[in-house]
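We give the chain.
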Amino acid sequence: MTKVTMTVNGKAVSGEVEGRTLLSQFLRDGLGLTGTHVGCDTSQCGACVVHVNGQDVKSCTTLALECEGAEVRTIEGMANPDGSLSVIQQAFQDHHGLQCGFCTPGMVMTASALLAQNPTPSEAEIRHYLEGNICRCTGYHNIVKAIMAASGQDVSHLGSDAIAAE
């Protein structure tokens, strides 16, 4: 066992981990932060996306020890300081960018990383950036709409909030 120390959602944390312990396991089992979902264990679905030092990473294929000294942000750390939803979280709610909710934490984290890099992405840029995230419920239309709305763009041209087939 090796001690790992990092800052998670603004709080210094540490724990004993095996060398093979994944960041997703450390967050969920070690810290009780179960908002980070694990859907595939192969880095395909994106449900496990968190931010490490400001970069979006798939925590199901990142070793906890790789994050020694890192700043980690999970979905639990996305809300505003007063506990209200962040702009991107509110946009997902307002534009029905979720259904079952399983992929939502990873989608929100990925969308947040995209908007940090590109504050006003086009629809095509959003769809390209989301290629590493799988949603089996929404058809992505409302997820794209939510991200565009969170960026302050007019989304009226994207049609109704009804689920669109891809």
Q: What stands out?
A: The helical segments are 23-30, 87-94, 104-117, 123-129, 141-150. The beta strands are 2-8, 11-17, 49-52, 55-58, 71-73. The chain has five helices and five strands.
